[in-house]
Amino acid sequence: MAEPRMKLYLQVNEMITTIFKRYVGPEHLLIYSIDEAILDVSHSHSLFGDTMTIAKRIQQDILDELRLYVTIGIGENPLLAKVALDVEAKHHPNGIAEWRYKDVPSKLWQVKPMTEMWGIGRRTEVQLNRIGIYTIYDLAHAEPNYLRHAMGVVGEELFYHANGIDYTDLAEKYVPLSKSYSKSQILERDYDNHKEVEIVIREMVEDIAMRLRREHAETSVIHISVGYSRYSVQKGFGTQLKIHPTDSSKKNNNLCTLYIPKACC
């Protein structure tokens, strides 16, 4: 058993990001998660060489300086790079895999199960199965309008992804119309005492309220989701409540505590 050390993970993530920034500008770097990032190195070839050379240099720098082994996926776009990473690079001896458009029929269409494909989770797979699509090949050869009618915009996007098409430009930053603050926590044991659950929620609310005050912001909606352990016969639930705009942890705590059904514990 190893204790989680999120502070250390974040510090290491920052150190790795510093190495990335030697090879790309901040506008061409997307931190995808605490252990994954997407880099557009097409603007760095004149300085550091071709894409494979840059990938190997980054990999070696991280190994030499941090003693960490990293895997790298290379592609014509973020989608192909991500799938190359997930499907092949993690199993390749040198930890690097390269997928180009010409590899779509021989590699991307052969990905099984479909949930190995970036953007297809279990629920999406079930939806696709219901309309007669069981493989990435089936998805790539389906009628786009049919997919859009059955699944909305997501269906059409999946069609393009199944054909290796992704027009994402990392330099184009998305600015959301509204901003949310959240905090999630996985508990190390089952809680059957309602008051114990309240303590955990109060701590999480206080953290979010502190972040709101730091950003000089207020919230008018609070939302809470509760999940049960994997062996429970009960499903989790979520609920939300509109409130008068505030950044007070005391007000939010009282509202959250009152709004959580006693049956949840």
From TrEMBL:
Annotated protein name in UniProt: DNA polymerase IV
Stored InterPro entries: DNA/RNA_pol_sf (IPR043502), DNA_pol_Y-fam_lit_finger_sf (IPR036775), DNA_pol_Y-fam_little_finger (IPR017961), DNA_polymerase-Y (IPR050116), Rev_trsase/Diguanyl_cyclase (IPR043128), UmuC (IPR001126)
Biological process terms in GO annotation: DNA repair; error-prone translesion synthesis; SOS response
PROSITE patterns the UniProt entry points to: UMUC (PS50173)
Family from the record: Belongs to the DNA polymerase type-Y family.
SUPFAM superfamilies xrefs: DNA/RNA polymerases (SSF56672), Lesion bypass DNA polymerase (Y-family), little finger domain (SSF100879)
Superkingdom of the source species: Bacteria
UmuC domain location: 1-121
Pfam families linked: IMS (PF00817), IMS_C (PF11799)
Cellular component GO terms, alphabetical: cytosol
Molecular function (Gene Ontology), one example: damaged DNA binding
